[in-house]
Each structure stands twice: as structure tokens, then as C-alpha cells.
Amino acid sequence: MSSFAQKLVKWHQNYGRRGLPWQGVRDPYKVWLSEIMLQQTQVATVIDRYQLFLSKFPTVNALAQAPLDDVMALWAGLGYYTRARNLHACAKIIASEFNGKFPEEPETLNKLPGIGKSTARAIAAFCFNHSASILDANVQRLIARVYGIEGSLKTSSENKKLWDLADQLVPKEAALMPIYTQALMDFGATVCKPTAPICQNQVVNNCVYSADCIAFKNGLVMQIPLKIKKSPSKIVVSEMLLILSQDEILLEKRPSSGIWGGLWTLPETPWVEVKSENEVSNTSFQLEQFQPVVTFTNQSIYDEAKILAPLKHVFTHRTLYFSTKVVRVQKNMVKCNQSCDWVKKSDLGHLGLPTPIKKLLADFQVLKRVD
Ligand code: SF4
């Protein structure tokens, strides 16, 4: 076994994370689910949702048979909704083409919707002792620091270097692959962290790699991996209609691709980029903007409706400000196209709704408050 792997496995025996519900699991369905959820969502958020998902969809076949709307509803709030759509699509393929059994080879797993190379290898290592390394962001950072890779990890040459190194480091004993893979994840998440790696701590500095780590020895820990300057987040604005009729609300289902794809939201205008936050209150609420999705037979009800102050929602690469007009109507005063539907307030909990829309509805006590 490489000395890198030896140190890591030993470290994990003493200091690895304990008690996470997906640790020590060998069932590929559960491993796959946790890996997909953890891709862009914090561990603390994933724990409850992972358990909820498993209680509702205990097997890959149960997930495959569920309506996509149920899956989206359970995913709502985790963000990056393409993951939920891919999860459902992948479950259907496993159920129909693989008889409900996950393939063991990473190359085959990697061809399924939403399963990237590193995730495929994680499933293969955890469940089938497959000897191939993962290379998520935590592992990239660890290997880049220990081996002093100073270039951008986004370039194909540095990326290839990382994959080659990662594969050379795996233990020869296949039976060690689950613990080694878990140790890689834990070490990157708790020791060789992006902003406060343990070797930079003045009080506790006991990294198992400090004698070998090139970045540490050369004082380059905080320079590796090379940070690419991010372009500033865009500001986009939209206007939305909260149309209420007694105990029902008019919602629009978004197309399956794109942001909030497949979720239910309020009828809205296209998101438009503005130069600064000073412009977010410049609303027009021209009725034509909502047509042909929604039209009103009684224009004065629309004109006199109250407009709420803009709300803000921050995405990774953009910030959305949306203003909302609250229109209370009789249902026969509204015509809408087939993308819209009247939904009873009591049924909202069963639909996939974007988090800011949930919050807005909660403020109107249409839905139970969400955090
Ligand atoms: S010495 Fe520092 S940079 Fe190197 S592996 Fe340890 S924590 Fe990471």
C-alpha cells in the first residue's frame, strides 16, 4: 500500500467522521442517493432529507415508479434540481434495463444520467470494492497540495495529472477501498479544508502529511489549488403574480430543463439582467408580459392589486430580485394556458416549489413556514 494510503487509513481509524447515516453502507442505491445529494448540498442539510427520501422511496424500483412531481417535491430546497430529474431518470433505467440492480463497473455507472466519473467510482468502491480513486473537489485539493500541483485544476493537463496520481495512490488490497474512499472524503472535509487547513492552525498542527506535503513545506498551502477569479454575480429581476381564489392558488409548472426546471412556481415575467440593485424596484407589471400564460377578464381587479416589496434570492452565479403582485379573484375571472393549474393550499406540500416561492407563500400563510 502506498504510504499516502497507509497514513490516510490509519488517520481514519482514529479521526474519521462517525455517525453519518450513509457511512459503512454497501447498498448501491443508498450510496448513490447520498453521493448525489452531497454533491452541492451541505452534510447537515442532507442528513434529514436522505432519511426522508429512503423512507418514501426505500428501493430504486420504488423511486422509478414514483411520479416525477413527488420526487421534485421531496427534493425542493436542496437546489440544483437537475440532480432530482437525473435521479428519477437513472432509477427508471436501473429498474427497466438492469432489473433493479446497479451495475458494478464504474464505466457503466458513468453512462447513467447524473452519475459523473467520481460518483461512479465512489459507488463502485463503496459497494463493490472496485480499485479506482474518486476525485471530488476535496480530493483534488488534498492531492494538489500534497504533490504541489500549482496550475489551475480546471485545465485538462492538470486534471489528467490529478486522476493519474489519484489512481496510483489507491491501496492494492481491494477490501480496503470502502474505508480508503471514505477516508479521502473525510480528510478533505475536516483536515485539508479549503480555507483553514489544520497545518495553518498555530495551536493544533498535526497533519499526517506535514512531513511530505509539498505545499506545506514550500509555504504554498493557501495558494493551492489556484483560485480562479470569479466574475461578479449577475443581478436579475422578475415580476410574479400571486393569484388567489379562496382556498386555491394559480401556479405555473416550469419546463423540465433550466433553472427550477420541473418545479411549480408563480406566473412570472422572464428574468432580465439589470446593472445594479437600484433598478430592482422599477416594476411595470404590464399585463401583456404575462400573456398568454395568464389573462384577466376583469382588468380593474388586476390594476388595483397590491404589489409587494421585492424579495431577494441568491443563487451561485446570480441574484434574483422578484416583485409580486397579489391578485384576489374569482376563478372565472382568470384564463390561463395549459402550463398553469389551480392548486388547493392544502395540496401545496405535495408539490415541488422553489425555496423563495415557499417563503413568499408562507408569509401569506398559504403554506407552513419553511426555513
Ligand atoms: S499539510 Fe496542510 S496542506 Fe498538506 S495535506 Fe496536511 S492539511 Fe493539507
Automatic annotation (TrEMBL):
NCBIfam families: mutY (TIGR01084). GO terms for molecular function: 4 iron, 4 sulfur cluster binding; 8-oxo-7,8-dihydroguanine DNA N-glycosylase activity; adenine/guanine mispair binding; metal ion binding; oxidized purine DNA binding; purine-specific mismatch base pair DNA N-glycosylase activity. It comes from Polynucleobacter kasalickyi. Pfam families: HHH, HhH-GPD, NUDIX_4. Keywords: 4Fe-4S, DNA damage, DNA repair, Glycosidase, Hydrolase, Iron, Iron-sulfur, Metal-binding. Its EC number is 3.2.2.31. One of its GO terms (biological process) is mismatch repair. Binds 1 [4Fe-4S] cluster. PANTHER family: ADENINE DNA GLYCOSYLASE (PTHR42944:SF1). Its cofactor is [4Fe-4S] cluster. It catalyses: Hydrolyzes free adenine bases from 7,8-dihydro-8-oxoguanine:adenine mismatched double-stranded DNA, leaving an apurinic site. It is an enzyme of class 3 (hydrolase). Adenine glycosylase active on G-A mispairs. MutY also corrects error-prone DNA synthesis past GO lesions which are due to the oxidatively damaged form of guanine: 7,8-dihydro-8-oxoguanine (8-oxo-dGTP). Belongs to the Nth/MutY family. This is Adenine DNA glycosylase.
